[in-house]
Amino acid sequence: MMSKLYPIGIQNFEKLRKRGFFYVDKTALIYKLVETGSYYFLSRPRRFGKSLLISTLEAYFQGKKELFEGLAMERLEKDWTKHPILRIDLNTEKYDTPESLENKLNRTLVRWEKMYGVEPAETSLAMRFEGIIERAYEQTGQRVVILVDEYDKPMLQAIGNEALQTSFRNTLKAFYGALKSEDGCIKFALLTGVTKFGKVSVFSDLNNLMDISMDERYVEICGITEQEIHDNLEEDLHALATQQKMTYEKVCSELKACYDGYHFVEDSTGMYNPFSLLNTFAKLKFGSYWFETGTPTYLVELLKKHRYNLEQITHEETSADVLNSIDSTSTNPIPVIYQSGYLTIKGYDKEFGTYSLGFPNREVEEGFVKFLLPFYANTDAVESAFEIQKFVREVRAGDCDAFFRRLQSFFSDTPYELVRDLELHYQNVLFIVFKLVGFYVKAEYRTSAGRIDLILQTDKFVYVMEFKLNGTAEEALQQIEEKQYALPFEHDSRQLFKIGVNFSAEMRNIEKWIVEL
Known about the structure:
Layout: H1 13-18, H2 27-36, E1 39-43, H3 50-61, H4 72-76, E2 85-89, H5 98-116, H6 125-140, E3 144-149, H7 153-157, H8 162-176, H9 178-181, E4 186-193, E5 210-211, E6 224-225, H10 226-232, H11 234-244, H12 248-259, E7 271-272, H13 274-283, H14 289-292, H15 298-305, E8 317-319, H16 320-324, H17 334-339, E9 344-349, E10 354-358, H18 362-376, H19 381-397, H20 400-411, H21 422-437, E11 442-448, E12 451-457, E13 461-469, H22 473-482, E14 495-504, E15 509-516
Parallel strand pairs: 1-4, 1-5, 2-3, 3-4, 13-14
Antiparallel strand pairs: 6-7, 8-10, 9-10, 11-12, 12-13, 14-15
Helix pairs in contact: 5-6, 6-8, 11-12, 18-21, 19-20
């Protein structure tokens, strides 16, 4: 058994260090952050170590030198000055009314006012915050440190509710404005969150805030690199290989495929999801650990609201401006999905300044597409995983009719309001199903106006399919012949199925399929 304590769910630096939990040393980067600037913003996906970063900074500014023994900070920092710290955590509240945010901020301010005093003339939340900063500085003689964890939680919970989001934005904009007006009293400030809201946003008056979300110097400040795994977890890699009856090399490549691949800057080091990685080492078993902690339904609501073609998600292209900020009135769901960690940077065109995006790794790709299925098809979250297993078994067994009857059931009870967007709906359902089947068999999927062509391959069978909308199954089969889709497999030893399928708008389902051997 491994003796290492993995800090799964541990977000408090002092607790982590005192109890001897494993820690990848990020303190050299933290020291650099403090020494080279004062006001920062960092966006990273959930469970990526933002709260631990905030807690580490808190311990550092409290002058707790003993917690940094053996870390880079111990040799870098000479003074260990204690500063007053104002820490705000917006993660622990349900924000569904304007008052919910005001009550949360008020409670935080009351706690600080017990420490630093109250001034009756300070009536608004923002004025009270300014007064607290001033008095904390005056009473201690040291400039104030402000740490905000999950600054965007209220805004994210209000996606889709423009009135509520406007209310939250106005409250936070005034509140965070104190950071600029009290600059002379502030030593350091860091705001973290999953997303960055742009345009007329909470940051529009805070133009002294440096966004390090896509800053190459701080790519490694959250998450774990491949080099850090080999520097700190070599013994653990061998233990995982032994437990899984895999070679060391295979375990390394499996870890990379499952959990690596986050790129927050073009041509940068790939980052591993720390939550999934540490769970894998703790349990000596691969799993979808990040997804088990929950995927926000607002992502699906955004995709459906903006009638997004899911097939695009595998080859999105966009600009840095779009990636860096979310406009609550935008019709583009991609920035939210990127900043939430479901897409990452795959390439960069320097000439045009455009980024190509894709899923970072297998855990995210498979987990996200599985999560989408019950929102688009006639199945619930519990049954959908079993339905995919049945699809895969039918494909492997050459049972075309059972496969298409099951597919028909996915389209049954299609809501009437989707009829006006029926083509997109049927393409989205087919994309999800065949993407999930494709994790177990080889799949090639292409779409164009009103039709889809698809190739599935198993060790025994090759399926060449053509789907049409409001045509005929015969026409679909004819197109397979005319376009010679099956030509690459004519001399293949596997059994070949050519399948023409027609989807009827009137029936809102698959109307007919023809199988030709």
